[in-house]
């Protein structure tokens, strides 16, 4: 089980393998992002993205799954206060095979909650050609193995 | 049909109504964010969130649906290059009723693509008690009614 103390600035790791399916792209889009570019091959082919592409929010959800399976399942995660930046760098087409790279940008303790600490990451989704298709900078809260002293 | 020229700094509008279902929270989490806090009532009740809560990524997807139905369906939208900031301010429990508020923060043309312009928004999801549960700042690209001159 990983705690806040186990994360160190500059550490980089890669994990996971997620094959993005055509039906999954369409099902997600039908529910949450019903733009033809995510639903219909011929409409999508006429666009700059060059064919059916996953919703950016679907790519975020796939990122979350890789993060859950590759890191959070083995960590004392306490959720996230939010996200600092998301960049959709390339379209994600059916059949894309994605892996997750994470780099620790910063770690800091919490003044108000001595039982936890914060870790800021840069996450990247990388396809089979080693192109970065998605980047996200965000903070995750982790439990501390050794909680800090509570401040007065 | 709304074009880039139709968005003006400072304009605020509210739209939509989305009732968040328990089964939907669990189905999304099972697929993309399998943390007990999104899957299991008794595990979730023991946490700071005080009960089963939607994945933050699910809340993003719900935001997207409200945005698609309330704005993009009537606009010449050309997608988004990314997101600048997301804040998860309050947990979203089953039965929450959400609406979307948007405020135009900035509009600018595109130097490289005279057929489009960019609009930066602050979006907020607001619950039935008028509490803001989610905030997102992001840019959307829209087609221009009157494309700018192409630069040399």
- Can you tell me the CATH architecture of the domain at 4-21 and 56-143 in chain A? Roll
Per DSSP E runs of 2 or more residues, the count of β-strands of chain A stands at: 5
Major sheet characteristics of chain A: 5 strands, antiparallel
Order of strands across the main sheet of chain A = 1-3-4-5-2
Total of helices of chain A? 4
Structural class of chain A: alpha+beta
Overall shape of chain A: it is elongated
Describe the structure.
2 copies of one chain form a homodimer. In chain A, strand 3 (97-109) and strand 4 form a beta hairpin. The first copy, chain A, has 4 helices and 5 strands, in the order βααααββββ. By secondary structure, chain A is an alpha+beta fold. Chain A has a 5-stranded antiparallel beta sheet with strand order 1-3-4-5-2, with helices on one face.
Brief characterization of the structure:
By secondary structure, chain A is of the alpha+beta class. The first copy, chain A, is built from four helices and five strands; from the N terminus they run E-H-H-H-H-E-E-E-E. The interface between A and B is medium-sized, with 28 and 29 residues.
Write the layout of secondary structure elements.
The structure is a homodimer of 152-residue chains.
Chain A lengths: L11 E8 L2 H11 L3 H4 L1 H5 L10 H15 L11 E7 L8 E13 L6 E11 L5 E12 L9
Antiparallel strand pairs in A: 1-3, 2-5, 3-4, 4-5
Features:
five-stranded antiparallel beta sheet, alpha+beta, 5 strands, homodimer, Thiol Ester Dehydrase, Chain A, 152 residues
């Amino acid at each position: 089980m990983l705690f806040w103390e186990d994360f160190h600035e500059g550490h980089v790791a890669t994990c996971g393998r997620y094959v993005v399916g055509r039906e999954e792209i369409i099902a997600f889009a039908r529910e949450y992002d019903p733009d033809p570019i995510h639903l219909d091959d011929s409409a999508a082919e006429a666009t700059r993205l060059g064919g059916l592409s996953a919703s950016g929010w679907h790519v975020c959800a796939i990122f979350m799954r890789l993060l859950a399976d590759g890191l959070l399942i083995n960590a004392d995660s306490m959720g996230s206060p939010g996200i600092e930046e998301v960049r959709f760098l390339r379209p994600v087409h059916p059949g894309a095979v994605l892996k997750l790279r994470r780099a620790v940008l910063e770690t800091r303790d919490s003044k108000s909650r001595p039982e936890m600490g914060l870790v800021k990451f840069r996450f990247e989704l990388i396809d089979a050609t080693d192109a970065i298709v998605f980047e996200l900078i965000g903070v995750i809260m982790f439990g501390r193995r050794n909680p800090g002293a509570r401040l007065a």
